[in-house]
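Dear U.,

Please find below the material for section 3 of the report. The protein was modelled together with magnesium ion; I have listed the sequence and SMILES used, followed by the predicted complex structure.
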Amino acid sequence: MLLRSMSAENYRSLRAIRMDLGRVNLFVGENGAGKSNLYRSLQLVQAAVRGTFAHEIAAEGGMASALWTGKRRPNEPVRIRLEAELMDEERAITFRYRIEAGLRPPAAAGFAFEPQVKAEELTIETGRRPVTVMKRAGPGISVRNESGRMAEHPEQALTSETAIALIGDAGHYPEVGTFRRAVSQWRFFHGFRSDRDSALRQPCLAVTAPLLDEDGANMAAVFATLATTRQDTVDLDRAVAEAFGGARLTIPEPEEFASYGLVFPQFPKRVFQPRELSDGQIRFLALAAALLSYRTPPLIALNEPEASLHPDMLPPLAGMIARAAGTSQLWIVTHSERLAREIEARCGVRAKRVIRNDGATWIEGMRLTGEMEDEDE
Ligand SMILES: Nc1ncnc2c1ncn2[C@@H]1O[C@H](COP(=O)(O)OP(=O)(O)O)[C@@H](O)[C@H]1O
Ligand SMILES: [Mg+2]
């Protein structure tokens, strides 16, 4: 399932932006250009599907902070609007999900920092014209039933809730479940903690881990799963050797806890424990676990993965990214021109340059429709 396009309005510096997406989406740009805002806008679509939208907005400072601060057209409602289009290529089904959220009217229910979800819609398209399968206006939700009619859903949504999460598998469109599962499985990785108390430096419960948790807490179990369940750590070993001058990752057979260590060629008899490794080494290992895990998420998004990595680790990082691109769609945000060049060369894509235009985030050379001017070159 491929994310085909994404649009956002009035979310932070995203005044109104729509972009077509491909398998590997690489964003570069200056500090403050809005790269993280783009990344977050996608994460919020996932939050809507998972039912954590209000929580996510409240945690980033509430609606007053999240809404675009700049000029608006007169009479334009003050609303964050996000839309994502996904395509199931095998079955040629397109899904379009849209959510609109605004401020709480002065005397309404709900809490001050929460968003008020005003509207949502999910449509599917299978070659013919699009069919609405779920629509929400205010608290009322309607869902398309087996006779193909829109029927009122028995439950009403609270203003802070998203209907897409609330309806579950209601309605008679198994495709809706496919859509929700795909979006829920996206993985976002941003700023792994690498300080002394970081989860990445602790052993973790030995529970089979096909995917890395977003905080990296099950990293040792991800490695153990590759070593024990798949019995294939070739890509992982290659990346580690390349990044750390010929070092080797040791993954003991786990009992109650899973752990790992590194052996460097200078000290072949000594296994370095996670607490002894540098921040950069720890973070590189976490990225390896994110990109080379047993199972592959439909989409992996990395926000500034180069942070605190030594420049020599950038080519192996790009190598892992190219490897992951074989099985997952990628959304990579970077501040590093070097990393961008390495990814461009390995994945055969051109980076999108994120810029500010009158305070609003934009992509250099992009038309209003979201297509790139030089797309057909
Ligand atoms: N509500 C808002 N309205 C307009 N701009 C905002 C809003 N919130 C944050 N910004 C702007 O977004 C920028 C930060 O964007 P961010 O995505 O973090 O940048 P980066 O490209 O460095 O990741 C800041 O310049 C800030 O001024
Ligand atoms: Mg950023």
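For the text of the report, you could mention the following: DSSP finds ten helices and 18 strands in the chain.

Regards,
Y.
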